[in-house]
## 1
Amino acid sequence: MTEVHLRTAEPSDLLALLALEETCFSPADGKLTKRAFKYHLQHPRNQLVIAYNDQQLVLGYVLVLVKKDAWRLYSLAVHANYRKQGIAKLLLMHIIKNASEKHVNYLTLEVRESNQTAIALYQSLGFRCKTRLPDYYIDASGLRMQLSLKP
């Protein structure tokens, strides 16, 4: 297994993030654009964290929109060649730890209703389904999930 490291994304990561986005998502998923990534890279409040290996290859990322007491997991991607190695879980655990340390009440996310692999991962970390979202995606329904971090 590849050794994985985490760090806050930097502007120099833009091309790697765009390439990853292109391989992980279809247009129906609402891919992040170059403009969107640039915004999030420059927005000090949001968290854009990358997972990378010893060769500095970007393996995955997580983007969280930060509000005072509720954070929204906006996007999570792991390169297909590196899936099933715990990278998504590592990224999520990092965000959950950060949120807990900042006394955030809860994390929310939306996921395709058909994405059982992602749903199982989220549930294993304590997320619970809150609402079904009919036609949330261009071609599918979604689920809103939430993780309560209140003591």
## 2
Amino acid sequence: MAHQLQISLSTTCSSSSFRSPPPWPTQRSITVFSEVFPKGFGKRIEKIGVRSGERKQSPSVRVRSSLDTAGSVVVTVGQVTEVNKDTFWPLVKAAGDKTVVLDMYTQWCGPCKVMAPKFRELSEKYLDVVFLKLDCNQDNRPLAKELGIRVVPTFKILKDSKIVKEVTGAKFDDLVGAIETVRSSC
């Protein structure tokens, strides 16, 4: 699901504010391409005004987003991809027959923080595996419940959109062993 985000910045000035044209451009447009935007993103944000002394400059920001899919979801290997309740299953389905490893963590969990850099290293080592991470916060609670999380960190290993292995706790060697087992069972 590739989406396009276009941000237009413009500045308007009253003619009596300046004796000559302003020394900065009066309009800029920036286009950003991203793989995933949160559900419902794309509403227009307009007119964020700022006044500076007597100049009466009023910059406005307009955000437009195209939520039409420009193709299928792109699965990235070699890095850890943050997912949420809306993006998890589409990414897992897009992975096809690739092994998917999901790190289910929380921001306050000490063992989760210890495992995070090791998990990132694994994503750089196993380029045939998709590595995802899910913050089990209030917003993602329905997905965490659906996946049957009881403790953090929990690592779910999926193959063909099905959970085939689980490692609970900060057990790095067990996680590596589980990944190797699933990879070799192809």
## 3
Amino acid sequence: MAVEPAALDKLSSADDWADADLLSAGFAAHPLTLRKLQRACGFTDQQAADACLVSLRTYRRWCATGKPDPTAVRLLAILAGFVPWSGWHGWEVHRGYLFPPGYTRGGILPSEFFALVFYRQQVSEYQRLHAQLKARVQLLEAQLAGHQPLAREVALQARVQALGVQVQALGAELAGLVTTPESAVHG
């Protein structure tokens, strides 16, 4: 049964997370990293040989002699998660997720990179709106500091006063309704 990528919750388990030093040494083609890189990939000897495009006998000879093909060691380092490109130092790929240096949670799927352009546009728009709102708040604070009543504020105060008058009138009517039945009962 295959595990869905979403079920992995963008995590890299401890047995999947290869040591960054091992990956760097492997990409530098250090011959003694071959077996450790194979384990970091989770490969059997046959799978490692297949990944290196050599026979099982050749792969086992490399392991026994400690003299593997440097290109094969570099390939296993990449398959174990090393990201070899300039500007990506320390980044690693595990279970199809890209992880920034030092992170084991919150990996990014390739499909999520397409959304980055949209997210950047959203951030730009939010920054623009934030600047507008900040300027408006500063203007309102300056008006309040200068005690200059705003037209809306004056209109709101008039509405509140009108509502207050209506509430008083309704309160008087309610009081009249409450006392009328009571006096009729006692009368």
